[in-house]
Amino acid sequence: MTEPTGHPGAPANATHPGPGAAPAASPSPDPATPWWSAGTDDVLPVTAPRPAAAVTDPPGDPRFAAVDAPRAHPAPGDQGPPRRRRPGPPAEAASFATPHAAPPSAAPSAVPARPTGGGSGRGGTGDLPPTGGGDSGGTGGSGRPRLRFRWIRLLLLLVPLGALAVVSTIFGMMMAVSTDLPNLDTAKEFQTARNSVLLDRSGRQIGVLADSSRYVVREDEISPAMKDAVVSMEDERFYENSGVDVRGIGRAVVQDIVARRAAQGASTITQQLVKVSLQAEDQRTVFQKLREVALAYHMTQQWSKSKILTTYLNRIYFGNGAYGVESAAKTYFGKTDAHRGCGPPEEGCAKTLAPAESALLTAIIASPSRFDPVTEPEAALRRRNTVLLKMRQHGKLSPEDYELARNEPLPTRQQVEPPTLEAKNPYFASWVSAQLIDRLGAQRTYEGGLKVKTTIDPSMQTAAEKSISSYLSSPDMPEASMVAIDNKTGEVRAMVGGENYREKPFNLATQGQRQPGSSFKPFVLAQALREGISPQKLYPSKKLTLKVKDENGRTEPFRVTNSESAYAGTSSIARALTYSDNAVYAQLGQTVGTKKVAKLIRRMGVRSPVSSNAALALGAPRRGVTVLDMAHAYETFATRGLRINGTLGAPNNGPVGIQEIREPGRRTRVNRRRADRVLSTEVADTATSIMRTVVSKGTGHRAQYGGFAAGKTGTTENNVDAWFVGFSKDVTVAVWVGYPDSGKPMQTQWMGEPVEGGTYPAAIWGAFMGRVDRILDARNPDRKKQQKDDADVPVDGAEPDVSAAPTATTGAGAATGGAPPTGTGGTSSGTTGGGTGATDGTGSTAGDGSGGGTDAPAPVPPSAPSPGSGSGTGSSGTGSGAGSGAGSGSGSGSGTGGTGGTGGGAVPLG
């Protein structure tokens, strides 16, 4: 095909007219040409065509530079983009594609004006002939740039309109919410307040939630140090901002992006006051947040800063039942020397708060449970000192005052006195109310007219209290704490948190963190079973010094001894659990890894941090555990490997204390059961069968009550803490005994002997289980038959053999329990008890028997043991000893002596 000459991109049969030639007229379309080829509908009309250039000018002439160069947009005088896109005409019909084409009578040297290329093509560069449309749009270019330009103009119009609409909406909302301000005044909230009530699981009222110690104080009745502490920590630009801190929001966004989580908040004191006042702590929608922002802005326009701060301090929750700054000051410092006897109407406690005290109360605001000085003293101290540092940085404390405040101690457990709680079981009620405050806020909890149906069972609660008081009733005796959890639902049925809530409001069941001792060993066993280790795997049972790595990877010696230096020579891990052999379980812990054990303990239900030190396998983590969490974790064994909790359970997947929350004007909340598989049924069943031997013939034989029982004893160094944790087919129960305030060793409190897990804790557990068994039988006589077909109930499998004589080892000897004794107790017939025997270094054997009677209506306190008998033989001689029966009745036992040596030893009682 021959390249056309003349105007680049012009039709092949067109020439340029001479200078000054008249505009060319368009010829009539060829009748043979399709209707769309003329293109008259595809272009915009023009009034004055552009003069054509002479054909004699060379293509490289500067006058043609603008024509020769490729262009993306039409030149001045060209027609605009087409109104609609259609397929372009053939090349030979292109002369009719534009009104600029020259008429047939024009001189041959003349060419029409440059076509606009009205097609939908991508736009020519001038080196191809135009087609009036199609893929090559000629030098006129494509219509897309003009279309894009129109969209840009449209967006430039819509964006301001949209912004104006958003601003108008926000402004309108801000005007609308301004009517809420009068309702946020502290003085008016009491007009609509209604007390909340607690109900037991049957719907009967057991308590009233009302903060009777709450007082509304004036601005001049709050210490300046308290105001400085709150402003320095919570909202440093409080006196400058308009209710919203834009700089704080920007900083929080950056911190959240860097941390990839919600690492920092940006709410001002005014916003926090609005949130608390609207009772919207659990509503975090975008609309609610915008409403809070708008209301906070209006509040700063109508209220003074002093009124906002005073109202905030009167409304905020400070933990331990303290609602408002005056109640908090009295709760935490009312018993200290500096504030003794303070309180309205004479002289309030908040008026004389010192910097260290103010800083502590400010620290608690962020999280009353996380920074509780009673249960979390280390975290509370760090947070308090952070507040003091903020006060120093903002010029509110001199360097000297700052150092003095940092060295001030926290209030002790004995000094902290929460407000009185009106309830039949105040320890349980305090635990439930703390959860309600976390969910709904303090104002809705205390004054929202809630009806809260709890999980407490009054009959079981009474049984728990009687079981403890029948053994520990003397003032100089240790105290006990107990928690009973329903295996099926994970609901707490009974809780004993102390002796007298008014005198000692500290809840031993939920707040007391104690060392668990050997009651941690079943967790080590479970991890070993998960890894395929046989229960019959043997380990040396002797005094050991293991080289272990600490949590920082450094090697250190770990010395292991058994109770009373008793060793078996060689023992299986099953037998070592039955008789609580520390030496075996220290080695097993190293085999499976204490980090894995710690992780499993957390997964099974212990919510406090669990360290992975080597002593963890023996129940000596760096931090103690609560009675509540121990019961919850053992429940995983009782459910054949399922950890049970609920939608209304305690924080961090804890046990359930609330069944239902009814709140006026809101949707009723109902607890839903949740179950997570933690252990396989095989592992749980095997561990359960071994724990049954602890009760039937091991260290926990005093826990026998006549029914299914599995568990483990625990005793800490110097007999400071004593535990028994176990389960039946219905409930899981944890019992702790000790002196909670002093940590006094219990060396003679068990009839002149040391208190261990197998003494008071096991005996209390057995007495309680006997009562519960009768309660449940009375409610459902077919209960035990129904349990046989329940897949989540522990199975009555055969117990493993843990009585085989260990391998003889010089210097160590042991014996196993022989035929258990029988006994009777109270007014009911006795059941088979268990007996253990042990050889000492000379071959003598001691038998220990227990009567396991299910006494009724109440167990008889322990008395002098009835003599039993025991005999044994050893490789180095023969011996005889005396056994003892204890519990609710008398009993006798016999033991078979194992191999003896020249060293001394006895079965450990941990």
Key traits:
single chain; 910 residues; alpha+beta; 6-stranded mixed sheet; 5-stranded antiparallel sheet; 25 strands; globular; disordered N terminus; disordered C terminus
Shape: globular
Radius of gyration: 43 Å
Number of strands: 25
Kindly state the mean pLDDT as a whole number? 76
How big a fraction of the residues is strand?
A: 5-15%
Distance between the termini: 106 Å
Give me the number of helical elements: 23
Helix content: 25-40%
Strand ordering within the main sheet:
3-2-1-4-12-13
Structural class: alpha+beta
The major sheet is characterized as: 6 strands, mixed
Q: List unreliable stretches of 5+ residues.
A: 1-142, 805-909
Describe this structure in words.
This protein is of the alpha+beta class. The chain is built from 23 helices and 25 strands. The strands form eight sheets. The chain has a six-stranded mixed sheet.
